[in-house]
Amino acid sequence: MCFILGVYIHNDLKTVDDVYKQIISLGDDYLTYAINLHKQEVDGYWLLNYINDEELTKHGIENKNHRQVILRKIEQMKNECPEKYATKER
């Protein structure tokens, strides 16, 4: 048994469909990004633990203001996690 520290797990953000819904909730300007992240199979775990400004750019989100809005949404979801730095048993 080992433990992974510093892992964000959000109960309502697990699948690629969950990520899609969260991104389109930001407005019509974000639909293309939601579709792109869905096609690239970005799930909740990946979004919360690995997506940063550089990764968003790699995923085709070139508009800096849009990246900042998405990053604020990610931070909000991280803060909603049951424990800020959850522990996952593996």
> Total number of β-strand segments?
2
Termini gap: 6 Å
**CATH topology-level fold name:** DNA polymerase, domain 1
State the helicity in percent bands. 40-55%
- How do the SSEs run, as a string of H and E? EHHHHHE
Unreliable parts: none
Sequence-ordered SSE layout with sheet pairings:
Elements: E1 3-7, H1 16-24, H2 31-39, H3 44-50, H4 53-58, H5 64-79, E2 86-89
Helix pairs in contact: 1-2
Explain what this protein looks like in three dimensions.
52% of the residues lie in helices and 10% in strands. It has one domain: DNA polymerase, domain 1. It is globular and about 30 Å long. The chain has a two-stranded antiparallel ribbon with strand order 1-2.
